Amino acid sequence: MKNKIQELRQEHHVTQAELADQLQVSRQTIISLERGKYNASLMLAHRLATYFNTTIEDIFTFEEE
Amino acid sequence: MKNKIQELRQEHHVTQAELADQLQVSRQTIISLERGKYNASLMLAHRLATYFNTTIEDIFTFEEE
DNA sequence: ATGTAATGTTAAGTACCCTTTACATCAAAA
DNA sequence: TTTTGATGTAAAGGGTACTTAACATTACAT
């Protein structure tokens, strides 16, 4: 599973720390998601979609395992 | 977080065991999701959406904590 | 050259997703 | 009444999402 978090974050001109604050998660969580260390929970995926004003399906691509 | 899994499953006329097989999870997982014991992972949410031919946002409602 | 902001790594701990196994309940069919 | 299918509960274990903390790297400003 891949995601566009870094891309979307940079388009929105926010730092990892700012995004983490907005989503109420740790900065480490944002780093790990952007670097593909693990997948977001459904709840966090939803908060990301809301923050970036898009859909979960747009942020995440589920193709490969 | 709520979900429409049971509702969608019944509309599709499949048992919990059949749905579990189709999604490659245990029957226990389907039961727990339907009964609200915990939330699906993002990957499972995606498989559910694909199976029911809809979107993650349609199956899950994120309103309340 | 030094300081600062942004990003990154590693590690240890907690909570939750999902599994397997075993058993209980209920309705409908035999 | 007994059997069967569908649904449910409980518990123990593995893997993963997320946390906090401490420290490293890079780039840019002073």
UniProtKB/TrEMBL annotation, chains A, B:
| Keywords attached to this entry | DNA-binding
List each coiled-coil range: none
Domain HTH cro/C1-type: start-end pairs: 5-59
Question: Which is a Pfam family this sequence falls into?
Answer: HTH_3
Which PROSITE patterns does the record associate with it? HTH_CROC1
- Protein name, as recorded: XRE-family HTH domain (XRE)
